[in-house]
Here is the input.
Amino acid sequence: MSPNRSKSRRILMMAECDGPGGAEVVMLQLSEELRRRGHDIVYLGPDNGEGWLAARYKEAGVLTATFSQRRPLDPKCLAGMVKTIHDLRVDVVHSHEFFMAIYGTAVTRILRKRHVLTMHGNQKMTDVWRRRAALRWAFNNSHASVAVSRATQEQLERDLGVTPGLLKLIPNGIPVREGNPQKLRNELGIGDDVVLLLAVGSLIPRKGHITLLQALKELDDAGFTGKFHLAIAGRGEDRDKLQKFADDSGLGDRFHLLGVRNDIPDVQAGADIFVMPSLWEGLPLAVLEAMFAGKAIIATSASGIPEAITDGEHGLLIAPGDPGPLAAALKRLIERPDERERLGKAAQARAQSVFTIQKMTDGYEPLYL
Here is the structure.
């Protein structure tokens, strides 16, 4: 879609967390494409965060501002947001995730601004009745509410009892960025005869990285002789736990924690197999990145992942939380480079037809007008 200057908008992107997560990357990439189409983007984030997302916006030349939220229901925070957003003279507020959905709805009702909200797939956001009531109010008082996967859309409709169709479905999309396949392998000292396994995601329990390590230990215990090396990009509370398990299991010399990476295209390009062992997800960007990179994918059948991958066609899907099936899938793809190639090509073709940044932005852009 070509830029339409007569319909350009000043759009405020509002986030409750400014760390390097999937929802935050979606915001950045959507903002980049909207700017390419002639819209003006402003970013509003927390003043007590780490500043990763704000720094990325500043690097891109985007105006940034902060809010101060010290407790879940904070009248001073709301008042501050009202003043900031009024002073920024935005046309549309686009909020992301639970707290910003609530605050964004309240602010835009006061200022009579257009409000779009996106839920990226937190399955715990409806556990408490107060949250359900607040989110139901936000959906019913915003111009558009969006879920990034059908699984998230159906969960929210079911948990909140809202009218089917109230939440629009706009799958995540990403820009195509080619990487250097040798950069990570050279960094890790891995030869071409070693199958490099890659996982990308926060080092937290729901990402299932411990299950991945348990699966690799099962292969070792069964006498598997295939050469492999595992690298995980991300950070979080499970870092020491994962490293200790790897060391205690004899996997330490074939395991690297990469930390937060800003060169994900290079990281993806260097892998042979991408693994997403999550217990639940929305529509994870890391899976889409692996698809665009043409990688063989092993992922759980959780949440929105099967909306991107058909088992046996674009990758292999296994049940979450069970190292046995994951070990079998890993053994299968480590031993079969021809199948890795077939699955990778099919995944890439599907990504190019369904999950582009252009298609995602085509879904959002009319909601701002």
